[in-house]
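Researcher: We're teaching a course module on how sequence relates to structure. For the next exercise, students receive a sequence and then see the predicted structure as tokens, so they can try to spot secondary structure elements on their own. Here is the exercise chain.
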Amino acid sequence: MIERQVEIKTQDGRMNTFICHPERSSPHPAVILLMDAPGIREELRDMARRLATVGYYVMLPNLYYRSNVEELGSVVGEVNSATRQKALQLMTTINIPMVMQDIDALMAFADTDAAASTAAMGCVGYCMSGQYAVNAAVRHKDRIRAAASMYGVALVTDKPDSPHLALRHTDARLYFGCAETDPYAPQEIIDQLRTEVESRRANAEVEIYPGTGHGFAFPQRPVYNKPAAERHWERLFALFGDTLGVRHPREGG
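Model: And here is the predicted structure for the students to work with:
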């Protein structure tokens, strides 16, 4: 595995980004992995590595670079309540238009890297970034061919860039993985999203993971659910494998 940390120039500064991909020389389909509210940490880098082992060029950008924040540290437990509050505040400093500019910069960088194949790309976002991953498939409908939102928030809003409206503007394959119990994405939101998918007969799927709570795929969270987390990996591998030309994906090969 080849790993490196780079700074990518954007309209608002320089965005530090973790990149990893297999060592073999052929270009690998690029996948952008977007962080959740607690930000960049080793847990997310490990997830990027796991995705890369299948055969992808994975980019994990620090979306808090505008606030000059690198890594916040753990947000788990009462002892880290102040850090948790800071993460929630930082989450409000970015929005869909800003992150779409960042996606532009990430794609432009990948275009210059011989290790990356960018004709067909993927994007996955967790928590606050589920909405960004889906909107990236609208902004770059000709290149981002698959996008996944994992326990995403703000999936149905009254704004023109509401993620649920993405189904009307892209034919990319979309996947919405939802926790069964999630105060940030309650059942009524999931129902609205599913209704939109069904009414549009869209190339999209909404799946609820039984017995899970918000954040279930993160190994360092108290709500971590290993069977559900492994299913989420299976679903991601299938999503990107079917759309990005990596056939029959298998970890480590």
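Model: If you want an answer key for the exercise: DSSP finds six helices and eight strands in the chain. The domain at 2-243 is CATH 3.40.50.1820 (Rossmann fold).
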